[in-house]
Amino acid sequence: MAGASSFSSGGGIGIDFLLDFGWRSGRKVDIGPHVDAWAECGFPLLDPACAFMEEFGGITFTYPRHVAVGGTHACLISGVEAVRGVSRAVVSSYESRVSRKLCPVGWSASGTLTLLMDEEGVVYGGYDDFLVEVQRGGRRALCAIHAREKPRRVVPE
Known about the structure:
alpha+beta; SMI1/KNR4-like; about 25% strand
């Protein structure tokens, strides 16, 4: 599958924190339910999203909320759950803004921010009219979310 190597284990991107949440090197899960959910809701089947889901699908991890608020947020990688939380019309509006096809791959901020991946493997986060580019590449996006890094850029309306 095209794009699979960009999400395979190794590559110098430290995702060891995911070991505590069920990830392991060489992990490969059945993505059939995610593919079915995407197709049922009219989302494109993108190679990078499939490869990302094979390695990280079903993983949920926690990360700290803002210091002033305290506590933790959760991030879930699941096409099945992501399509339940966002309408095709909203994703179509995001696609117009980034000029790329997008596929829902999960959520962060405990379900508030829908995570979407494009055909290049770039991960975006969207909530209503708010859209940000989280990171280029699924691994980098997971690390950025876990470390509470600022998004690479806000996508203008």
